[in-house]
Amino acid sequence: MAEMYLGKSTGKPRVVIIGGGFGGVNLARKLKDADVEVVMLDKHNYHTFQPLLYQVAIGAIESDAVAFPIRRIFTRQKNFSFHMAEVQKINPVANTVSTTLGDVHYDYLAIATGANTNFFGNKEMEHFTMPMKNLPEALNIRSLILQNLEKAAVTTNVAERDALLTFVVVGGGPTGVELAGALAEMQTNMLCKDYPDLKPEHMKVYLAEGKTKLIASMSEQASVKAKQFLNEMGVIIYNDVHVTSYNGNDLAIDNGVNIKTRNVFWAAGVKGEVPEGIPQEVILRGGRIQTDEINRVKGYENIFCIGDVAAMITVDSPNGHPGVAPVAIQQGAQLAANIINIIKGEATKPFKYRDKGSLATIGRNKAVADLGKLRFQGFFAWFVWLFVHIMSLAGFSNKLVVFCNWLINYFTKNTDNRLIIHYFDTETMMTEPIAK
Amino acid sequence: MAEMYLGKSTGKPRVVIIGGGFGGVNLARKLKDADVEVVMLDKHNYHTFQPLLYQVAIGAIESDAVAFPIRRIFTRQKNFSFHMAEVQKINPVANTVSTTLGDVHYDYLAIATGANTNFFGNKEMEHFTMPMKNLPEALNIRSLILQNLEKAAVTTNVAERDALLTFVVVGGGPTGVELAGALAEMQTNMLCKDYPDLKPEHMKVYLAEGKTKLIASMSEQASVKAKQFLNEMGVIIYNDVHVTSYNGNDLAIDNGVNIKTRNVFWAAGVKGEVPEGIPQEVILRGGRIQTDEINRVKGYENIFCIGDVAAMITVDSPNGHPGVAPVAIQQGAQLAANIINIIKGEATKPFKYRDKGSLATIGRNKAVADLGKLRFQGFFAWFVWLFVHIMSLAGFSNKLVVFCNWLINYFTKNTDNRLIIHYFDTETMMTEPIAK
């Protein structure tokens, strides 16, 4: 059984894909009709729709709606197989990947492991702040926020209450801006309705960003408008600052501000998830693996790398491409075509990124959009954002469920998924294990 | 702040309700217009719709859809407050409840703590088998089933594979029958589609019941038909048997059958969740607290008990009422009326159970219904089951989301929530803690 998949088998060239994110999934899909064997490895059995994790964290949508079983995506793809396994090491000489299930042979290897949170070596931040790059992390944030609201509702110590109700988002990129906006809406719409003892003015939302502007990857117009939206919603924004220390209670910022807070969310940076076995000399800044214009890892014939973990350094992209889903999706498609070309002995085609634009939502009826030359903000941008995100979700059921959630949230201004299912222990900074 | 709620406060009579299940929630709702202060305590911040937990366990519906935040249920109820707290002890002399948040004074106390799994003192079963009485337990089952399918897909050991694909449900009440049916549908509809290496004939589903018939609480006709449905779906049913031992691998049944299995689900019994401080002499068989005909705990003036944890022993109900949601809901409503009567000095009214009937679903288009004198089975019973369950769910969003899930499942025969979010560790029999 297992040998068939974990060793050399059908005689067809085998493409092993590490990671079932946007890049890996699209690469596998586009190999559907190719005369190859596709093997996907992921430590989770599901694909995660990362752009909506903040909505899970805030309790706006069901946790299960942003994830989709990888096997289900490929139910009908005959040349595909999936294994839930952690990759331990890549062995380029042997053409194998060592995993928790054993060694897997490859003819072509695609590294699509994505990015994880970058704390830039700051152990204190790593310990005390909450990242949000995967579903368990988003659920931990959901638990922490709700636990702290429950605690705030019963404490008789006003300073303690205020620290429990102070939320700091570190990082003003799209994720940070979206999370800060969602917290501000919680403050306005939910807090006094469901916590009669707490008042919106007891709660504070801060956003701290190192650059001089928010969502620096987008247009000046989008950036300015996003800041204006957040200001109107009551978010206190610090630009051009860095957080210098946080001990779980006191956060220090290098503009002299000290904030007493129990909720610090870290959205200030990412780094590539580089598997072991990739030599240091091809790992660039931010943990990205250097590739050529067909996503081939520098120095290898049959190892490729796509998406957030790849840095395609060419004349057109001297710093690589932005770490966003469309890049990963397009690189996956192009790499599929190129692997087929290589197998057939035909010429490969260099990757060209078609930037369709960027969207970020700040709140109800409030979003910013840069689409091609178009720049627009407000209700229509928000509507486009909703549409694009629903259509991009894997699985018809997820589309429908998220649509229902949003429809209801829009009319009721309520978020109904505020459940503490797995308690987050702020002593150990882990979910409490649940005995069956 | 907290003192207001956790100590004596407004001068109005205070009704403290322990537990936010069907009984507690309805009691609190019916006190909406009463001149009392209602305080609800629950260790979870959500109400659980237990009848659908098995659908979460099987991955058919979103985990968040069977739960609803308790605060959200009571958003508009002015005389209501909620505290997420574990009750440690009831102090009848002081009229207080000791909780993890401190002591809470009551004028009237309602124990609505429900029931938990009863292993009848069998420590081995308690350790190795999986109960399903709350949402984390249902999610643990979901993880275990999916983990074992993943393991089965890669093992080269056929005996090992078969043990991983053998599912035993202990207990042939409604829960056991519904779970066994759902497992059989997984075998037919999902297994070979998503696990090309596994064949339906590799998988086995057993149902072991101590009584001579299944769902003994329903009519003979329902019981016979349920068994027939399950037989048709390939479930191997043993009646009139008891499981005698299980070590995590080998399950022994007293009809001489030994089953190698890694998946044993315990739905064989429940016992009341009796808080400390209730004297032994009023605790009857199955951990139920004896009450009079107005749900007053024997020997107390102002302590009441409703739902699964109550045993109302009267001429009409010499063994108490069945442990089902409608009893809890009706007792909650009646107790609300009686507490108001007591406060006004008016006569109380004894509880009368209006049995509207029972429903159990075995699979797609297959359910059994006893409604009043009507007995029917098959598609229409299944349709009624769907309708009743959707309408009973708390929250419009949950209704809509479950409806969407079922609609899609019906047409695609797929279950899309098969996610291993919190890995279940079969060494420790706990979820693995997730560091943030």
UniProtKB/TrEMBL annotation, chains A, B:
<feature type="transmembrane region" description="Helical">
    <location>
        <begin position="379"/>
        <end position="408"/>
    </location>
</feature>
<keyword id="KW-0274">FAD</keyword>
<keyword id="KW-0520">NAD</keyword>
<dbReference type="InterPro" id="IPR045024">
    <property type="entry name" value="NDH-2"/>
</dbReference>
<keyword id="KW-0285">Flavoprotein</keyword>
<dbReference type="InterPro" id="IPR023753">
    <property type="entry name" value="FAD/NAD-binding_dom"/>
</dbReference>
<feature type="domain" description="External alternative NADH-ubiquinone oxidoreductase-like C-terminal">
    <location>
        <begin position="356"/>
        <end position="411"/>
    </location>
</feature>
<keyword id="KW-0472">Membrane</keyword>
<keyword id="KW-0812">Transmembrane</keyword>
<feature type="domain" description="FAD/NAD(P)-binding">
    <location>
        <begin position="14"/>
        <end position="332"/>
    </location>
</feature>
<keyword id="KW-0809">Transit peptide</keyword>
<dbReference type="InterPro" id="IPR036188">
    <property type="entry name" value="FAD/NAD-bd_sf"/>
</dbReference>
<dbReference type="Pfam" id="PF22366">
    <property type="entry name" value="NDH2_C"/>
</dbReference>
<keyword id="KW-1133">Transmembrane helix</keyword>
<dbReference type="InterPro" id="IPR054585">
    <property type="entry name" value="NDH2-like_C"/>
</dbReference>
<comment type="similarity">
    <text>Belongs to the NADH dehydrogenase family.</text>
</comment>
<protein>
    <recommendedName>
        <fullName>NADH:ubiquinone reductase (non-electrogenic)</fullName>
        <ecNumber>1.6.5.9</ecNumber>
    </recommendedName>
</protein>
<keyword id="KW-0560">Oxidoreductase</keyword>
<dbReference type="Pfam" id="PF07992">
    <property type="entry name" value="Pyr_redox_2"/>
</dbReference>
